Amino acid sequence: MHSFYRIPLPSHMEKTSWLLLVILVLVLLVGAEGRKSRILDESSSSYDLVYTAISCRAHSASIKDFGGVGDGKTLNTKAFQEAVNQLSQYASDGGSQLIVPAGQWLTGSFNLTSHFTLFLQKDAVLLASQEINEWAVIDPLPSYGHGRDAAGGRYISLLFGTNLTDVIITGENGTIDGQGELWWQKFHSKKLKYTRPYLIELMHSDNIQISNLTLVNSPSWNIHPVYSSNIIIQGITILAPVKSPNTDGINPDSCTNVRLEDNYIVSGDDCVAVKSGWDEYGIKYGMPTSQLVIRRLTCISPYSAAIALGSEMSGGIQDVRAEDITAINTESGVRIKTAVGRGGFVKDVYVKGMTLHTMKWVFWMTGNYGSHADTHWDPNALPEIKGINYRDVVAENVSMAARLEGISGDPFTGICMSNVTISMAKKAKKYPWTCSDIEGITSGVQPPPCQLLPDQGPEKSEMCDFPTESLPIDNIEMQRCSYRLNY
Question: Is 279 a catalytic site residue?
């Protein structure tokens, strides 16, 4: 399944871009295969499954043990929930692991449990049910106060959990297929009563690992940890049509101590979107996203950003470190989205090492992003945007270097750019930079930036900060887990 995926690219894409894309995909696939191994024992019809995780489990079972049928037609929601419920008894006895073997496992939403691993073997596909009644409706998030697609509640995510600890969702690059076409049609035709479901959402939880999986065709956002901490998301491939609505890749939301690394995303919206609540609801909830590391992200999103901060950032975003970012045919590199009424802050952002090809904007900040939760937003709630650092950036075939728009009376400050080389497209905009209501400095930036970002001279090409000390999430040790499984 899904061995090949046709990625829509514009006709003017150079052959070098295609070659780069193919190389990136091959590297990611080879890397994913190298993160786990399967050792066959032909004499005993079993194999040793070996992989790394934040926790290993003392107990293991297959979804087949609970009556699951992987024929792509039989609905397995009850089997999955019964499996999780029964395996939860081992939470205090070394934890448990539920194996999903090769096959197509049709299911509606089910809840996970603590000290638990959901493992998708090679060629295992979780197929999200397209029966709307399989999706319970839950309350909007308290930091949002409102659904993203419609007022009121939201459909529960396919894999869901709240108030959990030590949760792992991983595999041998197994697939979770959201079958999102039905949902996208309902969204476009304005027939949704509630907000679309996500593929994975964990709330109020701690010690989370999501790794070595392929997620395709999510109804909306793909991975949404919210109000949670100590999260590792790595080796994930996310694929959605580039015109699919709001199929964000990974959205850490009011989370602390998060590590995203070695992820490959093709989507119809931001590849990574950092959030912390919406307008007055996010201000009141007051839970920022902080201590976030993003490494070795590869992104294709022609209508959105590789990394977006906001627009729902009313609880604050602080200490974001992104490095080794590759984006091809993506609207912008790192985008900050906010508006009057958001409140909150985005500060202490550090970006180092971006390689970009075929972009509309390399740098984009806007204080005019609309889309309020309701009419009760506070016009005096002004966001604080400061301490935004970019260094070591190379971009090719760019329509416009930067669009930087602060808020009148509330400028974005402390912007730093150094060692940036941008090659403009043949049909680039006449003026590569537009700047208003911002303050900052630059060094070694081409083409020369706007006057609001004065050049400090080539000798200061490394002046923009990037912290050298590690965050706590980098100190979490992964274990080698080994299991003997029948097949």
Answer: no
